[in-house]
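re: ur question from earlier - yeah i can do the single chain one, its not a big deal. heres the input i used so u can compare w yours
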Amino acid sequence: MTLPLSRRAQGIAPSPTLSIDAKTKALIATGIDVVNLSVGEPDFRTPDQASLAGIAAITANFTKYTDASGIVELRRAIAEKLLTDNGLTYKPEEIIVSTGAKQSLYNIFVTILNPGDEVLLPTPYWVSYPEQIRLCDGVPVDLPTTESTGFKITPQQLEAAITPKTKALLINSPSNPTGAMYTPQEMQALAQVLENHEIYIISDEIYERLTYGCEHYSIARCSETLRARTFVVNGFSKTFAMTGWRVGYVAAAQPLVKAMSSFQSHTTSNPSSISQKAALGALGTFDPRTVEEFRARRDYVVGQLAEIPGITCSNPEGAFYVFPNISHYLGQTYTSDDKKRTRIESVDQLCELLLTESHVSAVPGTGFGAPRNMRLSYATSMTQLHKGMERMRAFFTHFSS
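and the output i got, formated as tokens:
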């Protein structure tokens, strides 16, 4: 007999990005040459300064518990970074360091949400947002965007969506999965709406350094009133290629950080002492050539997708993903080399076929709230991108209506 799990556990779906990555790695383990465009993990090395700082922490036996909210040296350095890079003023006690930005977000939701509280979520969204909200008994409320709106919400749309049940708005700029960014003027326009409503703002800025000719602008800069109820979320995974080190942080008003720190003290206690020292070593080492490399990859992938009939793809302004619309192929039939015919009913089915037939791994847009799109990551080498795009062009020649 198997004892039942909690309703909370039964209601949560696994991360589709990690699920497709696991399938991809399982195929690779059998010797199949798969081009993995599914995972959002930079292929660059962790900065040597970060790695050496981590090694130094180990050799100095800096391997014990730290303050639950992170070592003060790191929080002080993050405060300096926020002031220098983002024009935001925070004290070290207004910053909490966590085991990755994913934990940072969960800390926020568990701290502010009561059962039934609603969080406004522009779609497409990162796959973990709605699941984390539900885990905390909140209700994600979709605010749909499309290619025609630049994958951005409007002030009018925001105003119409706010109800007495609204507890927070989540903004992710640059966005995962679309790469869309709000300009300073667009942020100010949203801020004018938010000034009139007492709700929290969660600003996920994890891709802030990976922008292509656009200025990243935090909504917390718009006014002191909004800063007091904004959670600025960031981390080291994307900017510094430190995904496995697991270091994220939140900057917010001190009472909010204190509440999150109390919660964190009962879950993970503190983030890894070694990773914190590595993060301290990473700050200030960002190489702008990273952006130029990503820009070249973006331009190549967007150009290649434009040559595939029926696919449309906006040009992302940040992050390292493209989010092509493949709805033209839904309802069409794929004929394999051995003449097996498969009618495509969903983007999930199409991505599964792309993986098994052409050995290219992409993430269906369903988990992002966009069932007409797929996400491709260009956080891999140009050699792999050339191979992946060649295979995709060949794959889509097998379709007929």
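The chain has a mean pLDDT of 96. not sure if urs matches, ping me
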